[in-house]
Amino acid sequence: MDNKIAYILQIADNALIIGHRLSEWCGHGPVLEQDIALTNIALDHIGLARNLYQYAAEVEGNGKDEDHYPYKRDVTEWKNLLLCEVENGHFGHTILRQFLFDSFQFYFLHELQNSSDVRLSEIATKSLKETAYHLQYSGDWMIRLGDGTEESHSKMNEAVQDIWIFADEAFEKSKVDELAVKDGYGIDLTKIKSSVQEKRKAIMDEANLQIPDLDWHQSGGKVGKHTEHMGYILSDLQFLQRAYPNATW
Asked: Is the pTM above the cut of 0.70?
């Protein structure tokens, strides 16, 4: 596969999988307003994924369209971060997962605006305003829950212990990342790492939460090695196409 296509899909897969996870909150939110907010954020992510899958299909050609990539790839062909596929858990788990992803995605898209690929730059610019809101939303809830009641603080601590091990995979450079930077259309992840970490620390401090002192982190998503959760996601996402190949509405 052409490296540019692989790079586009890597970004798209993050957006679609975390969007799918958030969509599972529809009708199950803790209060109506947050139910609607989470669903709208899910739609933002899925919209970004769709723009990227459309572009990948145009670049690859071969008669493929945007539906090919989410519906007709097996699990090892997906290159999303493991963080994106982590289960929703309780509301605190979801908020922490979103904050970790949003804090990365905001600075990633901000830098991607400088891509030599005009289409990628335009997609990043279009999505950045939404992503800024996502980061504000998850950051605000981190503070409200972490520095809230004894129970909410306890649940956020639980979420930190469960999820923080997935936080730093985003900074790992795959071969796809390295070639994308070399050719000018990708971004150097080391350029945004300090900004992401500073944002995370600022919010965690305000939320009265401690960043775990870890000397390792979970990884593998960028090379197609996923958690057990990914198979369940794809069984839902791809059911119709697998049961009725090439079916259309």
From this structure: yes
